[in-house]
């Protein structure tokens, strides 16, 4: 059995665990307030972007340094369930921000007996993400590597069975290629913002959708578009 999914009434270990649920509730609330302000400040750039063919996210990008820009609860749960159902033991994230998606993935790692490794280049955000994982009771099963993911993930040990791409969009392909040699057969790759960064992510979508390539992929209309791929190549 890849993981023990039995729950005892008191010590629930999934998303219904009291510390996990409470921390996620607070963080989603905090994120919606802060990000609403950030996007309000970015409004003139967003409007100007409409005339130059830039998406809302692309136009707002210079304002987003301290924003949460988290996954939705729906998508967080979906990734949690996917990681859990595969029994993913080595779960990796590119772009952790304040740790909302990290909590969903670390909660899965706790249940599979695995480990979650997040990455965040903003040191203040990385520190808060670690605090949030701690508040959720998930420190033992998780870490956030501070700095550029291309450097911090280079020494990561494989096999990696689950990767979530959510950092800056021009780095999706480099981060993916960095980790490919470490992928377990059937590794899962999720990537966010496929629709909101349509132009920037076109090379990435072409790469993971290439029918003669190494992935089987579908694009889901969750939030601002999510790609879901399975690595088919055997090393
Ligand atoms: C969309 S936010 C991530 C949101 C997070 N996954 C969540 O759902 O809560 C993107 C984050 O990626 C981080 N980032 C961007 N480029 C990075 C890089 N090269 N290495 C590590 N983190 C990076 C940004 O600082 C930002 O906090």
UniProtKB/TrEMBL annotation:
Signal sequence interval, chain numbering: none
Keywords: Methyltransferase, S-adenosyl-L-methionine, Transferase
InterPro entries (UniProt xref): SAM-dependent_MTases_sf (IPR029063), SAM_O-MeTrfase (IPR002935)
Protein name listed in UniProt: O-methyltransferase
GO biological process, one term: methylation
PANTHER family in UniProt: PUTATIVE (AFU_ORTHOLOGUE AFUA_6G01830)-RELATED
Gene3D superfamilies noted in UniProt: Vaccinia Virus protein VP39
GO molecular function, one term: O-methyltransferase activity
Superkingdom per UniProt: Bacteria
Naturally occurring in which organism (per UniProt): Hyphomonas jannaschiana VP2
Record's keyword annotation contains Nucleotidyltransferase: no
């Amino acid at each position: 059995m890849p993981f023990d999914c039995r729950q005892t009434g008191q010590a629930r270990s999934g998303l219904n665990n009291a510390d996990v649920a409470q921390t996620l509730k607070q963080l989603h609330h905090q994120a919606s307030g802060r990000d609403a302000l950030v996007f309000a400040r970015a409004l003139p750039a967003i409007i100007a972007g409409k005339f130059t063919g830039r998406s809302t996210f692309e136009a707002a990008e210079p304002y987003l340094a301290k924003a949460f820009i988290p996954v939705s609860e729906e998508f967080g749960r979906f990734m949690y369930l996917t990681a859990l159902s595969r029994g993913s033991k080595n779960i990796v994230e590119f772009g952790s921000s304040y740790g909302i998606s990290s909590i969903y993935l670390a909660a899965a790692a706790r249940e599979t007996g695995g480990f979650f490794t997040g990455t965040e280049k903003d040191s203040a955000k990385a520190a808060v993400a670690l605090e949030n994982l701690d508040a959720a009771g998930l420190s033992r099963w998780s870490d956030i590597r501070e700095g550029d993911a291309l450097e911090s993930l280079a020494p990561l040990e494989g096999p990696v069975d689950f990767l979530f791409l959510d950092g800056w969009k021009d780095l999706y392909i480099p981060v993916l290629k960095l980790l490919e040699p470490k992928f377990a057969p059937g590794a899962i790759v999720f990537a966010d913002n496929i629709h909101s960064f349509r132009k920037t992510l076109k090379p990435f979508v072409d790469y993971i959708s290439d029918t003669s390539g190494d992935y089987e992929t579908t694009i889901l209309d969750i939030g601002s578009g999510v790609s879901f791929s399975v690595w088919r190549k055997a090393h």
